[in-house]
Amino acid sequence: MSMTNxxxxxxxxxxxxxxxPFHIAKDxxxxxxLQGARAVPSPVIxxxxxxxxxxxxxxxxxxxxDLARKAADLRLAAWEVEAMRKQLAPAETDESMGLLxxxxxxxxxxxxxHPPYIRVACTGRGDYDHLATExxxxxxxxxxxxxxxxPVVLEIWPAQHYSPIHSHGHxxxxxxxxxxxxxxxxxxxxxxxxxxxxxxxxxxxxxxxxTKENYAVHRVYCPMDGGEGPTGPGFINTTDxxxxxxxxxxxxxxxxxxxxxxxxxxxxxxxxxxxxxxxRDKFETHSDLSWSVLRRVLAGTPLT
Length: 304
Hints:
Blueprint: H1 26-38, E1 44-45, H2 51-58, H3 62-71, H4 78-88, H5 99-110, E2 118-121, H6 130-134, E3 152-158, E4 166-167, E5 172-179, E6 182-187, E7 196-202, E8 207-210, E9 217-221, E10 242-250, E11 269-273, E12 280-284, E13 289-290, H7 291-299
Parallel strand pairs: 2-13
Antiparallel strand pairs: 1-8, 2-3, 3-10, 4-9, 4-11, 5-8, 5-10, 6-7, 6-9, 11-12
């Protein structure tokens, strides 16, 4: 991996230097975006529009390119996007609260160290599937036990919410934008003071990727309008704006990652840095909801 003029790490998280989630000033934001745009191999897979861009994408591993090609035509239908908005919107009463907003608040109560986002398992079940029946979205569920390590997930990012810095360890995969806008910061290691390698923006149809050798450590942020107040630990947005992304994580037979990137070996557990105490922790990749449940809820969501 070749990165130009990598930004030196910051010693502490300083809100005056741009605030959460990236802690960078405007000039550094510009430099990091240029670094992301010049990185070899390209951290973003898309339709090449120049010889240089084609060459940078040529260096992307074939297995990752195959995942991206298979996802290239994925889209959320307009009614699915609108129904997600309805389910994410703030509610005046508990009775009128959507399923996705309810899950956000449940996750926030468990961990407010960063603004929560929602993982939807495309296979298996989610930990909060039962809320769909408890609050009248569905009549029944056949199985409510959550699964861990789903290879394919849909992630829903409320505006101004973000992930902690985290490592995907030994997996290879893609992050394919389906709706809204997402910013992805790339780091050289799993540490609060890690060097920032580049910042890229994904819009629908664009794809970021990762392997054990490249871009395994990152943070994802939805920069859309989240309402009042700055983002950061303890923030919950007050709008229905969101970004959505499709993720695939494949386990290699044997691989390695930077020596200081924790014990991540597969998609069952990822290491990350907590926002509240800046220490390393482990995230067991339970999903919050299953796609089969979510799609049934979306289909029954009034759009008027």
